């Protein structure tokens, strides 16, 4: 099991915490059983806010899909993760 830290923007931190899945750029190693520490990042101040939450990965599905957070080049290079949480 790995513990992985990732930035999360304020709108995602507020709205997506209760969702059973997360969609992430697949630019890091990830497998079921890992934990992700989501640290809220303010893109305006370019600093962490101090808020965080931890989720345990239940299942990982890697595929490519468009999103507003990453460029097509990033998505093509890395693919995307669809992460399901173990509750």
Describe the structure.
- This protein has 87 residues and is an alpha+beta fold.
- It has one domain: Archaeosine Trna-guanine Transglycosylase, Chain: A, domain 4.
- Helices cover 16% and strands 48% of the residues.
- The chain has 2 helices and 5 strands, in the order βαβββαβ.
- The protein has a 5-stranded mixed beta sheet with strand order 1-3-4-5-2.
- The longest helix is centred in the first third of the chain and has 7 residues.
- The model has no long low-confidence stretch (mean pLDDT 88).
Fraction of residues in H or I helices:
10-25%
- Our count of helices gives 2
> Radius of gyration in whole Å, from Cα?
13 Å
User: How many strands, which pairing sense, and closed or not: the largest β-sheet?
Assistant: 5 strands, mixed
Q: What CATH first level would be assigned?
A: Mainly Beta
Shape: globular
The helix/strand series, from N terminus to C terminus, equals EHEEEHE
* Share in β-strands: over 45%
Distance between the termini: 16 Å
* Class from helix and strand fractions: alpha+beta
CATH superfamily: Hypothetical protein
């Amino acid at each position: 099991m790995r513990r992985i830290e990732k930035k999360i923007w304020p709108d995602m931190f507020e709205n997506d915490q209760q969702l059973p899945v997360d969609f992430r750029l697949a630019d890091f190693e990830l497998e079921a059983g890992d934990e992700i520490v989501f640290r809220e990042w303010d893109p305006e101040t370019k600093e962490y806010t101090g808020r965080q939450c931890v989720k345990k990965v239940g299942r990982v599905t890697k595929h490519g899909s468009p999103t507003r957070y990453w460029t097509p080049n990033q998505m093509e290079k890395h693919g995307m993760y669809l992460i399901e949480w173990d509750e």
